[in-house]
Design brief:
mainly alpha, Lysozyme, Membrane-bound Lytic Murein Transglycosylase D, Chain A, two-stranded antiparallel sheet
């Protein structure tokens, strides 16, 4: 068969396009298989493959410290179970930053992956920041929320801090020791050894025993995970996929309403959002980020979009001079027991002047707030003022301006009675 030159060129282009399409489809199929395989992998296997810190030359100290983990499989698996909600996110962040994966195990020795754990030195959260360090790292702590317990905010702050320490000491074990005992202590130990011409290796520094044991404990946990069969520990599996997704909240909302709209328990909400100190999520200058189980995000957004009732049933009340909790409870149609429970007030503790507590909105207050919100929205519209004339009725005024009697009442907080010369606010859109 003989082809003209143009026909031959067209055929070649068609063949090339077909080959490229087959390659693209094949590549897509390979990627889908790869993604499926990735999610079938145990997250702990992924973590192990990215460990980077070597055990010390003399591993006697490590063996001594790792004994509790190796001899108590239930304990190590309980810690891993606690971390199941958070580990995928932390691993992703550590990989993105190019850090050693041992850092993902820091919460094992800090908090056992329990963001609500309380310590004697007032440290809080997965990464156990004390209040002062939290403030330095930009973690907000107020009556509404403590971002030292926020999963995303605290993790970002911890990893930022580790990277700063590594840049300062150029050694990950020194950075980890400094995270525990303070960068000043590590710097002084380095200076002493350098001044005396001694080694500045982590193992040769005269550091406090607790900081050395802190690093050893981290390496011990790592060793148990890597060599679990050797220690006779059967580690639980963690799916290598995201556990949660994020949602931005732009206005205050009750936590109980969030759980209802997202169809999750309060226990699940608190595990993912442990930063909140009150029953209300208060939105101040910027929106708040909530974490929800991945499968529940869309459920929450759909339900929130169709929800029409008030989203907040609590408000802040500041105690005035001479007031007691009995009077405040009566005024807000609640009980002393409920107020003390909600605000975490001890049984025999009295309120003090200026103290801020949460009290319920009454039905009238919710309605008033709704009216105030609607009036505020009116500022976004063009509006005018109508002066009532003799013989006017609300029905005639509403008809003349293309609106309803109920809307005019709402805009002006008035009843059916009009008076000559009265000014009525009428929207023009």
């Amino acid at each position: 068969m003989i082809f003209r030159r143009n026909d031959l060129l067209s055929l070649l282009i068609l063949l090339l396009f077909s080959v490229c399409s087959l390659i693209s489809v094949g590549a897509l199929a390979d990627r889908l298989v790869e993604d499926k395989n990735q999610y079938d992998v145990n997250l702990l296997d992924r973590i192990q493959s990215r460990f980077a810190l070597a055990l010390p030359p003399d591993s006697k100290a490590i063996r001594k410290i790792e004994t509790p983990y190796a001899q108590n499989p239930e304990m190590i698996n309980r810690i891993i179970a606690n971390g199941e909600r958070y580990l995928f996110y932390i691993v992703e962040e550590i990989e993105r930053r190019g850090m050693p994966m041992e850092i993902a195990l820091i919460p094992v020795i800090e908090s056992s992956y329990n963001p609500l754990v309380k310590s004697n030195n007032q440290s809080a959260g997965l990464w156990q920041f004390i209040p002062a360090t939290g403030k330095i790292l930009g973690l907000t702590q107020n009556v509404w929320h403590d971002d030292r317990r926020d999963i995303i905010a605290s993790t970002e702050a911890a990893l930022d801090y580790f990277q700063y320490l590594y840049q300062k000491f150029d050694n990950w074990k020194l950075a980890i020791a400094a995270y525990n005992v303070g960068e000043g202590t590590v710097s002084k130990a380095l200076s002493r050894n350098a001044h005396k011409g001694r080694s500045i290796s982590f193992y040769d520094l005269n550091l406090p025993i607790e900081s050395k044991h802190y690093v050893y404990k981290l390496l011990a946990v790592k060793d148990v995970i890597v060599n679990s069969r050797k220690y006779g520990v059967r580690l639980r599996s963690i799916p290598n996929r995201p556990y949660f997704d994020t949602v931005k909240i732009h206005e205050p909302i009750d936590i109980s309403l969030v759980t209802r709209l997202a169809n999750i328990s309060e226990v699940e909400f608190t595990a993912l959002n442990p930063a909140y100190n009150r029953y209300v999520i208060k939105v101040l200058d910027e929106p708040r980020t909530l974490l929800l189980p991945k499968d529940n995000k869309e459920i929450f957004l759909r339900n929130l979009e169709t929800y029409q009732d008030p989203k907040v049933s609590w408000k802040i009340y500041q105690v005035k001079k001479g007031e007691n909790i009995n009077e405040i409870a009566t005024r807000h149609s609640t009980t002393v027991k409920q107020l003390k429970t909600i605000n975490g007030i001890a049984r025999n503790k009295n309120l003090i002047l200026g103290q801020k507590i949460l009290v319920p909105h009454t039905v009238g207050e919710v309605y008033s707030d709704d009216i105030a919100q609607k009036r505020k929205q009116l500022k976004d519209y063009q509006s005018g003022v109508y002066i009532v004339k003799k013989g006017d009725t609300l029905y005639e005024i509403a008809k003349r301006h293309g609106t309803t009697v109920d809307k005019i009442k709402l805009w002006n907080d008035s009843d059916e009675n009009l008076s000559i010369g009265q000014k009525l606010l009428i929207t023009k859109s």
